[in-house]
Amino acid sequence: MDWFTILFLVYSFLGFYFLFLFFLIYIHNRKEFFEVPPITKRYSLSIVIPCYNEQETIEKTVKSVLDIGYPELKNVFVVDDCSTDNSYNIIKKLASKYPKVVALQTPKNTGKASGAKNYGAKFAKTELIGFSDADSYPQKGAIEKMIGFFDDPTVGSVTASVLVNRDTKFIERLQAIEYRVIVFTRKLLGFIDAIYVTPGPLALYKREIFNKLGGFDEDNLTEDIEITWHFVAAGYKVAMSVPAKAYTDVPQNFKGWFKQRLRWNIGGLQTINKYKTAFKEKGMLGSFILPFFVLSWLLGITGLAILTYRILKFIFVNYLSTLYSINVQTAILSAQDINLAPNVLMFFGVVLFFLGLSFTFLALIYSRDSERKFKKYGVLGLSVYMFIYLLAYPIILIASMYKYLTKSYSW
């Protein structure tokens, strides 16, 4: 058996393993997918919104948080990270208009969302502390659908469904598909206590635990991943409420999308490096989250390598065959050379693809949004998503690894 066959079989095994694992989790928990614990206590809450040059969106974000409809929301701390646009003036006007809004500004620009978040968190005195990005819009009732999870003393954080705010451009529609698949996958991971990120658009934490763990890591580009791993490493669970929704603006062009995904992956690498010793420890971080994170990336890179190898081999072999045929003046291909019988590797590849496609369809069904009418994804959108968009991720990961190793990155 040659090395390529062995590599492909290992790749196929891991792909089948994760897909079947997710399908089994779904089958076992499908009736509980949208369940929300009843409210037995209304915890006091403060929400921190970090802001840097967000004059176009910050007012809408603040109003969305104020309209969330949670009676125990005490304060909304809007932290300007020394913006160079009109953001801080807008924030001060909002603070003068709405009693719950507190305008804050960092002593100096921290250059990262985590710095502004930690600065704002110092002013919170409530039982829970929440965070929302300055370009995200939590929906009314979202908090009511999240706080019931905190009745479990082992739950330290709760996250919501994060969906794309608009899909007028094709790249936004591709991200809309991606975000819906992420919502579905994250909830499935929640059933086995393996959620690995509490995204910035809307996440709640028990403030006492948040402070005890030191808040966000300001050296990490993805503070929302790092703090989730920190909570899990400390023995706390992370829950997710699917009905609680927050919409977020996504990059509208390829350059912005690529830059954002680079930051996500570099931050992921930083987090893996920080918690690499968890492999030796018990608990979900070391036994599942960390291996799942690493293996998912390895699968992506391996899949790209296999595809690249097959394409290059096909081109190279056909080039040599054509060159030889011209030199000896003979036919390149005869009827008896055509073999239509599928081999095992091709069969595994096709099955993996259709299982992945089925998972995507299932995710889109379960994360459908009756509150908003978005454009249909269509055959073209789904095809580009499956054949091009997803294939770009391993390339971004390789670029991220290079930037991480050479330390040529910033928030």
Describe the structure in brief:
With 411 residues, the protein is α/β, with parallel strands linked by helices. The protein has helices spanning 3-29, 58-66, 87-97, 113-121, 170-190, 207-212, 223-233, 254-274, 284-328, 344-366, 378-406; strands at residues 45-51, 73-80, 101-105, 128-131, 136-138, 155-164, 203-206, 237-248.
Output the CATH class name of the domain at 41-253: Alpha Beta
The rounded distance between the terminal residues' Cα atoms is: 46 Å
Number of strand elements = 8
Tally of helical segments: 11
Work out the radius of gyration.
Answer: 24 Å
CATH topology of the domain at 41-253: Spore Coat Polysaccharide Biosynthesis Protein SpsA, Chain A
- Low-pLDDT segments: 335-341
User: Could you give a short account of the major beta sheet?
Assistant: 8 strands, mixed
Give the percentage of residues in beta strands: 5-15%
Shape: globular
User: How would you name the CATH homologous superfamily of the domain at 41-253?
Assistant: Spore Coat Polysaccharide Biosynthesis Protein SpsA, Chain A
Descriptive notes:
- The protein is of the alpha/beta class and 411 residues long.
- The chain has a domain at 41-253: Spore Coat Polysaccharide Biosynthesis Protein SpsA, Chain A (Alpha-Beta Complex).
- The chain has helices spanning 3-29, 58-66, 87-97, 113-121, 170-190, 207-212, 223-233, 254-274, 284-328, 344-366, 378-406, and strands at residues 45-51, 73-80, 101-105, 128-131, 136-138, 155-164, 203-206, 237-248.
- Strand 2 (73-80), helix 3 (87-97) and strand 3 form a beta-alpha-beta unit.
- The longest helix has 45 residues, at 284-328.
- It starts with a helix and ends in a 5-residue tail after the last helix.
- The model is unreliable at 335-341 (pLDDT under 50).
